[in-house]
Amino acid sequence: MLKNEKAVVVFSGGQDSTTCLFWALKHFREVETVTFNYGQRHSLEIECARSIAEELGVKWHLLDMSLLGQLTQNALTRSDMAIEHHEGELPTTFVDGRNHLFLSFAAVLAKGVGARHLVTGVCETDFSGYPDCRDSFVKSLNVTLNLAMDYQFVIHTPLMWIDKADTWKLADELGAFDYVRGRTLTCYNGVIGSGCGACPACKLRQAGLDKYLAVRGKDGRQ
């Protein structure tokens, strides 16, 4: 039973990972979080993750992955690069190797703290084409980590097959709708809550919220 197990959540303080944190708190006996400093545009992301973990009473780890910014050029680690997405290409926000490295380092941490379960908010539905958000990648890495460390990890992806509207629905079902809406940082421009309203992350988040609220209203919920 998962209720007797321990999990580590890969945690950025955004909508998806915070929803996954509430999901993990419901399903596991003990939960810890890990956030990565990879030279992202806004250090506020790290502070947001720290404060949420503290408020929810879970242990928070911060790992230095700043070398990632030295290896790849992208709009999330370089303020002089525009956030763009041209048809047929990956968005400039794609960070090569990010989920691969984050999950690998999270696994090392998890083994050290006695956890076999890793939780991540990647999904194949609203994923902008990121190759390291695909289910096939996660399953492949799960096998690789188990072989590499001789340890039986299970990587959980609660959002893998749902869109942003259903992610809002899940947060609502977990009793976390208002918390996720007001306290998380999804915005590429570093604005907590509803965000800047202009960047791709904010537009996706808002479109999902609007879609869910329309359904929620029809169901008679406020």
UniProtKB/TrEMBL annotation:
Coiled coil: none annotated. Its cofactor is Zn(2+). It catalyses: 7-carboxy-7-carbaguanine + NH4(+) + 2 ATP = 7-cyano-7-carbaguanine + 2 AMP + 2 diphosphate + 2 H(+). It is an enzyme of class 6 (ligase). GO terms for biological process: tRNA queuosine(34) biosynthetic process. The keyword Zinc applies. Zn(2+) binds at residues 187, 196, 199, 202. Pathway: Purine metabolism; 7-cyano-7-deazaguanine biosynthesis. Pfam families: QueC. Signal peptide: none annotated. It comes from the Bacteria. Keywords: ATP-binding, Ligase, Metal-binding, Nucleotide-binding, Queuosine biosynthesis, Zinc. Its EC number is 6.3.4.20. One of its GO terms (molecular function) is ATP binding. ATP binds at residues 11-21. Binds 1 zinc ion per subunit. The keyword Repressor does not apply. Homodimer. Catalyzes the ATP-dependent conversion of 7-carboxy-7-deazaguanine (CDG) to 7-cyano-7-deazaguanine (preQ(0)). Belongs to the QueC family. This is 7-cyano-7-deazaguanine synthase.
